[in-house]
């Protein structure tokens, strides 16, 4: 702990004017009591600053005296009486050396160089209280014979065993305090804090140590402000205003103050005036300052926490202070000075006496070491009492004792490792002040912060304050770090990632997926024509209706298979057409359900073969009509092409070969359309590169086009024998539907398979309604005498006469009749058509 942290800056309650400055005189070694073993004490009651008397140091000195007297009045060291010799350092290095010299050389000669056998009466010195003084005293020649135990000097340098092998202390080094502060902030999730420190070496050292420790805890500093260490600095008031402005405008709700007490008091005066409320973290220099705790308005500024060296009870000490007096046989000019003061006040009210717990521990450490050296038992200490100081140092390094349920020992660096107490400044509503309550502790060995009791938060909502650079990212978002480690932007998790209670977006696993900003993953919905889906129901309805119509047609065919109507319809060719349509309807069933490779191959091939068979049969019918009514000289040359079985077989086999090559070189496959921005996977069949599919459709279209041309060329044949209109319409429907389908398929719109199914249905129903339904009408509704062969011939003749009349107006009746007779006699094709086909 820094000298000026406790002495120069102590407030008016703890620093009392004496009217004289600290010029060194014998009064500065003004307290002693004889004993078998003398313990030296370097106190700091006086200050080199004029007219100041430090009540904190005075109380700590009295705690040492009280503990020594308590041991003397007990049987802890039977037959051994401890004495003490107290000198004041005046909080000055040179005065400290003078006091130490006076203490060690009193009634003894100065030692020679490196004389380890020199045996002064004072075996050990408790003090000095401040790091600066301890460094000077310990760095002198006195360390060879005189050992120091400090109760508050916390500079890390003093842990160097090579430079300071004889220095011990009952407090941890400063290096642990900033770690404890960082752990406290991490415990409450405060990653955005402000810091105000002094411009002295102690403040700069604490700053660098704190910045290193908070970095390990992922804590960042919102601001770092510096205040002049000396109170008489001409810019002190301006800097106080500027620091208050920084605190007020910053979004950091937690502020660490590594300052001496009087600077904190000045700053808090401005903070109270501005009505600023924050959570304040105190360094050990003011963490138990009663002067600040009694400030007017101190309850308005928010929570105050601080670490202090471990505190604890000192049995009987409060009563000792209340009845303060010098015991018989002892001298204490410090008590006399205190009792002469006009405004001395009550020590137990002016100082929190629990801070003197370390002084009690220092005396107890010496007592336990002496118990070992003096070989003490329950009744007597038989060891040599006039021993050399180095023996005591050896035993001190090995002590291990338990007090108040805590174990104490010096580690290899000469420090106690019991850590710090967390002091919570609790509001006292009746007095308007703050009381100190130990709310937790920091353990140096496991470097963990432990909270002993719940904290009451003094803010508008009575909730734990939030001090973050950035808002907490909600589930479904992740931190996107900025240049400052603790600051971030919250960005939504991308597709395929999620976050729930973490700060990062995690990838979805096991085939699951998520959309932007999701907090969970789930399997994607598989899209295809389910059997109970609306698409499937519509298609199934039309397919079943189609099969029903084919079944009706099959029944009518078998009932009227010998009639001219069915013969005219093609006879067995009609059965092949029905088979082709059945295959086409069957292919539509494969559009329903989750597709796979085999289904994708089968449904297109099934349709291609089925409809090729159908159109090949219609081609036979178109060619039959066309050839039958050609003039006689052309009929002979064309009739050799009329081979129905060959046409149907080759027409279908060619398509079969197209499909085989398609399956081998460019096979259809199952394809999934998986968009990252959707929770759906669309399962569809892909027809390879599309070339094989195009060849299949183009081949059917070519057959249909040939049918259309033949039917169109023979459209003027007699009506009774005329199926050309039906063929023309059915083929036009097919060509129109598939011409419309082609650009839709090429565009690869998601609905192309629905449109393909519709195209198959329309094409198939076109065949049924234009080829089968008219035959049903003629078979079921016409009179029998109207569907005989003779009736067909008579109708043909009548039709021919009408044609001749309409085409030969103005010609004589005899001429027309002669042509009619010649037509019947010289038209073997008509007779042949009626007798062979009907």
Brief account:
The chain crosses the membrane at residues 536-560, 572-593, 605-623, 644-665, 691-712, 724-747, 753-773. This protein has 838 residues and is of the alpha/beta class. The longest helix has 32 residues, at 597-628.
Topology diagram in text:
Elements: H1 3-6, E1 15-16, E2 31-33, E3 37-43, E4 53-54, H2 55-72, E5 82-88, H3 93-105, E6 122-126, H4 131-138, E7 147-150, E8 167-169, H5 174-187, E9 192-198, H6 201-216, E10 220-227, H7 236-249, E11 254-258, H8 261-274, E12 279-282, H9 290-293, E13 304-309, H10 317-322, E14 330-332, H11 333-340, H12 347-350, H13 357-373, H14 389-396, E15 401-403, E16 406-408, E17 420-428, E18 433-443, E19 448-451, E20 477-481, E21 488-492, E22 497-498, E23 506-507, E24 512-513, E25 522-523, E26 525-527, H15 534-559, H16 564-569, H17 572-589, H18 597-628, H19 632-639, H20 644-665, E27 669-674, E28 680-686, H21 691-713, H22 724-747, H23 752-781, H24 789-807, H25 813-825, H26 828-837
Parallel strand pairs: 3-5, 3-6, 6-7, 7-8, 9-10, 9-11, 11-12, 12-13, 26-28
Antiparallel strand pairs: 1-4, 2-5, 2-14, 13-17, 15-16, 17-18, 18-19, 20-21, 22-23, 24-25, 27-28
Written description of the protein model:
It is a single chain. Helix content is 45%, strand content 16%. The protein contains 26 helices and 28 strands. It has an 8-stranded mixed sheet with strand order 10-9-11-12-13-17-18-19, with helices on both faces. A 7-stranded mixed sheet has the order 8-7-6-3-5-2-14, with helices on both faces. A hairpin with a 4-residue loop joins strand 18 and strand 19 (448-451). The longest helix has 32 residues, at 597-628. It is rod-shaped and about 160 Å long. The termini are far apart. Residues 2-21, 803-808 and 822-838 have low confidence and may be disordered.
């Amino acid at each position: 702990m820094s000298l000026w942290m406790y002495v120069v800056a102590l407030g008016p309650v703890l620093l009392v004017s004496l009217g004289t400055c600290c010029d060194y005189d014998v009064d500065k070694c003004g307290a002693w009591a004889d004993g078998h073993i003398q313990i030296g004490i370097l106190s700091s009651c006086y200050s080199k600053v004029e007219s100041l008397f430090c009540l904190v140091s005075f109380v700590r000195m009295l705690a040492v005296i009280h503990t020594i007297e308590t041991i003397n009045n007990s049987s802890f060291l039977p037959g051994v009486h401890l004495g003490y010799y107290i000198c004041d350092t005046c909080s000055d290095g040179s005065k400290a050396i003078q006091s130490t010299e006076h203490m060690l050389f009193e009634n003894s000669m100065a030692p020679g160089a490196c004389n380890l056998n020199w045996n002064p009466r004072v075996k050990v010195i408790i003090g000095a209280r401040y790091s600066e003084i301890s460094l000077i005293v310990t760095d002198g020649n006195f360390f060879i014979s005189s050992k120091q135990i400090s109760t508050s000097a916390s500079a890390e340098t003093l842990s160097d065993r090579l430079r300071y092998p004889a220095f011990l202390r009952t407090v941890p080094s400063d290096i642990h305090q900033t770690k404890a502060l960082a752990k406290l902030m991490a415990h409450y999730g405060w990653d955005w804090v402000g810091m105000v420190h002094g411009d002295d070496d102690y403040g700069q050292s604490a700053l660098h140590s704190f910045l290193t420790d908070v970095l390990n805890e992922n804590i960042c500093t919102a601001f770092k402000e510096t205040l002049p260490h000396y109170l008489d600095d001409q810019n002190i008031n301006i800097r106080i205003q500027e620091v208050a402005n920084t605190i007020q405008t910053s979004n950091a709700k937690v502020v660490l103050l590594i300052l001496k007490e009087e600077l904190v008091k000045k700053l808090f005066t401005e903070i109270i005036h501005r009505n600023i409320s924050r959570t304040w973290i105190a360094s050990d220099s003011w963490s138990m300052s009663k002067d600040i705790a009694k400030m007017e308005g101190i309850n308005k500024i928010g929570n105050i926490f601080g670490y202090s060296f471990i505190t604890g009870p000192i049995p009987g000490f409060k009563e000792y202070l209340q009845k303060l007096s010098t015991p018989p046989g002892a001298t204490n000019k410090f008590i006399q000075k205190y009792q002469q003061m006009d405004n001395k006040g009550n020590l137990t009210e002016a100082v929190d006496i629990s801070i003197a717990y370390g002084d009690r521990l220092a005396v107890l450490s010496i007592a336990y070491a002496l118990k070992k050296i003096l070989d003490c038992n329950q009744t007597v200490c038989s060891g040599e009492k006039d021993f050399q100081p180095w023996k005591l140092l050896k035993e001190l390094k090995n002590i291990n004792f338990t007090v108040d349920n805590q174990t104490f020992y010096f580690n290899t660096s000469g420090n106690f490792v019991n850590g710090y107490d967390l002091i919570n400044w609790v509001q006292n509503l009746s007095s308007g002040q703050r009381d100190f309550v130990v709310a937790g502790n920091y353990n140096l060995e496991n470097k963990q912060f432990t909270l002993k009791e719940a904290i009451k938060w003094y803010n508008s909502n009575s909730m734990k304050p939030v001090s973050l650079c950035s808002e907490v990212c909600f589930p479904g978002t992740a931190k996107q770090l900025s240049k400052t480690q603790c600051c971030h932007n919250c960005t939504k998790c991308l597709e395929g990632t999620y976050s729930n209670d973490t700060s990062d977006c995690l990838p979805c696993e096991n085939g699951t997926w998520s959309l932007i900003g999701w907090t969970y993953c789930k399997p994607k919905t598989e899209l295809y024509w389910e059997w109970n889906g609306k698409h499937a129901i519509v298609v199934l309805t039309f397919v079943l209706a189609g099969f029903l119509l084919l079944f009706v047609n099959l029944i009518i065919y078998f009932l009227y298979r010998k009639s001219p109507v069915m013969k005219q319809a093609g006879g067995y060719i009609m059965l092949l057409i029905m088979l082709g349509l059945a295959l086409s309807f069957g292919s539509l069933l494969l559009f329903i359900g989750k597709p796979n490779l085999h289904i994708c191959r089968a449904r297109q091939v099934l349709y291609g073969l089925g409809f090729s068979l159908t159109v090949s049969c219609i081609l036979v019918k178109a060619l039959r009509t066309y050839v039958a009514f050609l003039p006689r000289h052309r009929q002979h040359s064309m009739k050799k092409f009329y081979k129905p079985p060959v046409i149907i077989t080759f027409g279908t086999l060619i398509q079969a070969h197209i499909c085989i090559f398609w399956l081998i070189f460019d096979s259809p496959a199952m394809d999934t359309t998986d968009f990252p921005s959707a929770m759906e996977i669309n399962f569809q069949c892909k027809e390879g590169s599309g070339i094989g599919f195009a060849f299949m459709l183009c081949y059917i279209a070519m057959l249909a086009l040939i049918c259309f041309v033949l039917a169109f060329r023979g459209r003027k044949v007699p009506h009774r024998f005329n199926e050309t209109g039906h063929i023309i319409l059915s083929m036009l429907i097919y060509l129109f539907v598939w011409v419309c389908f082609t650009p839709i398929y090429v565009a690869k719109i998601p609905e192309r398979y629905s449109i393909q199914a519709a195209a198959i249905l329309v094409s198939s129903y076109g065949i049924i309604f234009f080829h089968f339904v008219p035959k049903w009408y003629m078979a079921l509704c016409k009179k029998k005498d109207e569907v005989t062969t003779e009736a067909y011939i008579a109708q043909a003749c009548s039709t021919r006469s009408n044609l001749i009349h309409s085409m030969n107006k103005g010609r004589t009746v005899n001429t027309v009749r002669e042509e009619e007779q010649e037509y019947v006699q010289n038209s073997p094709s008509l007779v042949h058509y009626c007798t062979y086909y009907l």
